[in-house]
Design a protein that fits this description.
Shape: globular
Distance between the termini: 34 Å
CATH architecture of the largest domain: Alpha-Beta Complex
Radius of gyration: 23 Å
Helix content: 25-40%
Number of strands: 22
Number of domains: 2
CATH class of the largest domain: Alpha Beta
Largest sheet: 9 strands, antiparallel
Bound molecules: FE2/S2 (inorganic) cluster, fe (ii) ion
CATH superfamily of the largest domain: Naphthalene 1,2-dioxygenase Alpha Subunit, Chain A, domain 1
Number of helices: 11
Oligomer: single chain
């Protein structure tokens, strides 16, 4: 066995192993910043976060502070939040609306199209000082798909549309929940840290194998609320879903719904008052999309990974979740709830309840996931020399369809990650 390989991927030997070094070594994190994050399309934000000219939000994308904004002419922009003078942040608010970004250090100010608008004491600069060359800098690529905006620091990366590959169909299934085709990020955000490597949350976010063991508290709660969560006899896990490779490292678990969905599957925990609105939403879906597609949109749950670090969990609510490595053993998680812009208040309430009670950092599921991931990190970190490999072979010997509780979708992520981490950069067409 190659001791230094990141993964062992041996189809003939039905073996797939992960070298635990990739979860603990700072040098590997440094390499993945360049090779993985800087060579992918990275999720920035949703168009509904900046609906009006002048709207902006600030956040980090691929480790850089950015301003995601709509300029006064209405175009979506993304700027690196660093002053061209000496580097201070030019926007220090989380969100707002402004024509100008004003650097508090020496007072340079920038229009919301990025151009340098004013320089205090400009007469002290020489003739060669050219304001037109000193606007805010932007990542080389910015594009959107159905309201979801992505950036890339790789100027030669393929078009976003091609990059998303099979993930586009799954984004479509989210957008089609809206009669107007418009989603909105519901104001407010969940932010929390996990003392674990960021790739563990990729795995965990669509690892159905852990449902019954990790989430027994939540399953008991659902059962007590009148939801059928029984496992068919003879199966370790319900055969209620499949795992799929969607190309370019993207993957999904695609499950039959057994719990509620605000669009459009009512369950008793939602309360009787929510029933008419949810029934009406289903009727609207059938009228607009036909019975088959409506069933697909309304009554299947999908946990979608857009490589490398965007998860769209479309279940009892729709959650957009990104996470960034702070260090090799700590990540910063951000999660937003998203829903049809026109949905009724009672459905919005159901959605936000689920966002909080299931996915929330204090909910019935996420704390158990966090505990599991932190235990993994602790175990792996302390024993990586003695116990170097993790096992990831569920379903590997099967031809055809893979279950949600198999690990094809996890292997899909790791294969792409490994390809980027080991490719010969000099051989890239844009090299040099
Ligand atoms: S650093 Fe921004 S004006 Fe000097
Ligand atoms: Fe979980």
């Amino acid at each position: 066995m190659m001791r230094d390989a990141f993964i062992v991927d041996d189809a003939a030997g039905r073996d797939f192993r992960l070298n635990r070094r990739v979860l603990v070594e700072p040098a590997i994190l440094e390499a993945e910043r360049k090779r993985v994050f800087d060579r992918s399309w990275i999720y920035v934000g949703h168009e509904s976060e900046i609906p009006d000219p002048g709207d902006f939000v600030t956040r980090k994308v691929a480790g850089r502070p950015v301003i995601f904004c709509r300029d006064s002419a209405g175009s979506v922009r993304l700027f690196l939040n660093t002053c061209r003078h000496r580097g201070a942040r030019v926007c220090r608010e989380r969100r707002g609306n402004s024509n100008r970004f004003y650097c508090f250090y020496h007072g340079w100010s920038y229009a919301n199209d990025g151009s340098l608008a004013a320089v205090p004491g400009a007469d002290a600069y020489p003739d060669t000082f050219d304001r037109s060359l000193l606007g805010l800098m932007a990542p080389p690529r910015l594009d959107s798909y159905r309201g979801f905006w992505f950036a890339s620091f790789d100027k030669a990366i393929c078009e976003l549309h091609a990059y998303l590959a099979g993930a586009r169909d799954y984004i479509d299934l989210v957008v089609e929940q809206s009669a107007s085709g418009s989603l909105t990020v519901v104001s407010g955000v969940q932010e929390y840290d996990i003392r674990a490597n960021w790739k563990l949350l990729v795995e965990n976010s669509f690892d159905d194998y852990h449902l019954h063991s990790t989430h027994s508290t939540w399953l008991e709660y659902m059962k007590d609320s009148g939801v059928d969560v029984t496992v068919p006899k003879g199966l370790l896990l319900p055969k209620r879903g499949v795992g799929k490779d969607l190309g370019n490292g993207h993957a999904v678990i695609d499950n039959l719904n057994f719990r509620g969905r605000p669009v459009a599957a009512w369950i008793p925990v939602y309360g009787d008052e929510a029933k008419p609105a949810i029934t009406a939403a289903k009727t609207e879906l059938v009228a607009r999309l036909g019975p088959e597609r409506a069933e697909r949109v309304a009554n299947t749950n999908r946990n979608l990974l857009v490589f490398p670090n965007l998860m769209i969990n479309d279940g009892s609510s729709v959650t957009i979740r990104t996470f960034w490595p702070a260090t090799a053993d700590r990540m910063e998680v951000t999660a937003w709830a998203v829903g049809p812009v026109e949905e009724s208040p009672v459905m919005r309430k159901v959605r936000l309840d689920s966002f909080l009670t299931f996915y929330g950092p204090g909910g019935l599921a996420t704390p158990d996931d966090v505990e599991a991931l932190e235990q993994v990190q602790e175990g792996v970190g302390a024993t990586v020399d003695e116990v170097p490999w993790s096992v990831m072979t569920r379903g590997i010997s099967k031809a055809g369809e893979q279950l949600n509780s198999d690990e094809l979708h996890l292997r899909t992520f790791w294969r792409r990650w490994n390809a980027l981490m080991t490719e010969d950069a000099a051989a890239r067409p844009d090299a040099g």
